[in-house]
Amino acid sequence: MKALVLKEKGVLAIEDLTINRVLQPNEVRVAIKSVGICGSDVHYYTHGEIGPFVVRKPMILGHEAAGVVIETGADVSHLKTGDRVCMEPGIPNPRSLATRIGMYNLDPEVRFWATPPIDGCLVEEVVHSADFTFKIADSLSFAQGAMVEPLAVGMHAATKAVIQPGDLGLVLGAGTIGVVTALAALSGGCSRVVVTDIKQAKLDMLAPIPGIIPINTSERDLHSVINELSPGWGADVVFECSGAPAVIKGVFDELRPGGTVVLVGMPPEPCPLDIVASQAKEANIKTIFRYAHMYPKALALMASGKIDLSPFITHEFKFEQAIEAFEWAATMPDNCVKAVINM
Prior knowledge:
six-stranded parallel β-sheet; seven-stranded mixed β-sheet; 26% helix
């Protein structure tokens, strides 16, 4: 079957591979229909590594996927052939301590698609654990199904924030993760969410959503905006989604006393955090790594119409254009939030 393979840093190929994977009783075989291009996929393509995860041999890319079940294992009862599904890409060791205490995203043994040396899902078919495969509503496209994976990150961040009804939220960064975090924060109870960036095209896509206030910090003073909305108190919850060291440095600036900061974005290298600024406000500092138990809630919100991700699927490519899509994504234009490859 055809797959998009990262041969080595900067070298991609569409190859015909022979993949003979025997279906286990608790697994399903899925024909892939849509795969989102994530920043981590692009980073592996351009740099060949992310922290300790180094591409040492050819690897299939992709971890945000939706498709159709074409075969089920003997013990699978909640899925059947023909079901439209999306797949959570990380499979933990079910017997690990992290899994048993409900934090399976932190399991050191987790096998996560397109994280070296594990192959990803930009391939015609995959075999996957049925426990981490979820039906998507008929009202959702396959491309929207692929978007459940980044939405799960935003849902995890909003859950960790312990939002109170009516809270004022602030999201720093309007990339894919910033967008889904803002939507999750609204669904979680924030009355308004200010989203900042310096790329106006991304902010313009958020402007029509009730409750979201997009702010271009190269043109407007964020402190004045938060003071006016609070008034003079600060944001209840700040989500750092940019991963930019300069932004992280000031992450406590607009936080109210006793408020919560959730660190979502990952900086490219270690960067300082202003501990005294956090102490002066007795800030609650939360961190997240991927997500746990978020897919069902994310899918429920999407099926209900309370979260609509379709406006943020800004570019779509055919699988035959996959190499071109990654070359394009490496210098992604300002008007792109999420690009999807359709099989």
